[in-house]
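go over this:
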Amino acid sequence: MTDTPSPSVTIDHLRIALPEGADRPYAVDRVDFRLYPGKVLCVVGESGSGKSMSANALMGLLPEGVRVADGRIRLGDTDILAQDEEGMRGLRGRRMAMIFQEPMSALNPLMKIADQIAEVFEAHNLLRPAERRARALELLTEVGLPDPARAAASYPHQLSGGQRQRVVIAMALALEPEVLVADEPTTALDVTTQAQILELIRRLQVDHNMAVMFITHDFGVVAEIADHVAVMQLGRVVEEGPADTVLRNPQHAYTRKLIDAIPKLGAGRAEAPERPPLLTVEGVSKTYHLGGGLFAKSRKVEAVRDISVTLGRGETLGIVGESGSGKSSLGRCLVRLQDVSAGRIAIDGQDMTRLQGAELRALRRRVQMIFQDPFASLNPRIRVGRAIADGPIAYGTPVATAMAEAEALLERVGLPGTARRFPHEFSGGQRQRIGIARALALKPEVIVADEAVSALDVSIQAQVLDLLDELKRELGLSLIFITHDLRVAAQICDRVMVMQKGACVELGPGAQIFDAPAHAYTRSLIDAIPGRDWDQSAA
């Protein structure tokens, strides 16, 4: 009989109080956690469940106005709650470290990558400058960056999302901490990059014998990486246990709801009947010319290469692929947010690529877009009712009529009586509903949804997908759905186009693409889906 090791982190009866006027008194209410060396605890729940607040309390990073009201947090024998800010600085990095969800926000845009990693050693007065830079290069090699020397000399914006996340992991590992907290580190990444990051965290955790607290809303990720699972709802742990037990035999209704909300890859739609074409894309290419100047040559990037496809009336066409595959560039071309370099895009036979001025403006209302980040695409100073009404007003609808229609649209997307509220007063899922209402305001025939649900919790994601499908059927819309999540594409799309390096490598009905993919790249995307084996056995 082997002895159970002492926990690296002990959290007992933790209560985190929210400011007065919040939707509930405690963000976290009487929560217990144990983190053990060499093990991964996945904390699962929707936004507002308290999972990130628990992690922030451990790291001493609670936002202003939020405080620990009761309980105990210990890192080994160290009382975390008894530490002042200087004491916490000594613990962060050395004994515990955190990987944040959005690496671009966690990195300084004005500093090169090597300097940012070296700064971790400098903050703790460790190593000489030359040794810091050498160690930075070693860490970038350890986390699997393809060209560590080039990455070290780069600025954050010059790296992809997956590469930036590897840099943040390298910074977290710099001082070889006992405990690693990973807060949704793979949520916005495409499936292959996500699989690589999960494998990397798992390997590093084993190699360094770290205790890992992994925060996620995706049970597919849990199936891939967790040893133990704690499910949180409204600040409380409603179910916990070994990962296999929770995944195979969930006991709590909320756990079952989260699992049921995951789109199933095998739940593909029946093949849709052939429909008359509404939107025709013929030989479309888009080339960017980047950089250049007095002493430097510009670099040519072929983002979209010779794409031809049709969209039928009432059809949903999915466009899938990794980051950099060209799917978002194609989406922006379809709504004329950027001009094509070659080819034509026609709606009902009228070539959009050749139109200018009033003619383009008249046609543009027929094709609208839902953006990935609903907060960034809404003006924070404008009430949401007016934000929805502005499009029709610009096309000549009287203000009173446009505002009345905006209120009706908000009710239609499940947000009645909210027209006078500002964007910051809504959750992420609610803001995405506002983005949908705004796209519908001009009564378009085609909607291009660019990663419209990628950052949402699985249950909110399911609601938004159901809403889009319902609106599509009721209003006779045609939908182009751009996503890196193949489970989502399987659920909502009639046909799917797979893009790689700007080109279409496979196009066909959803059932064919997911059940019998013809191209090796499509098969690699499907194989990389987190928790795919568990998903199939649980289906």
Remarks:
- The first helix runs from residue 51 to 59.
- The chain has a mean pLDDT of 89.
- DSSP finds 21 helices and 20 strands in the chain.
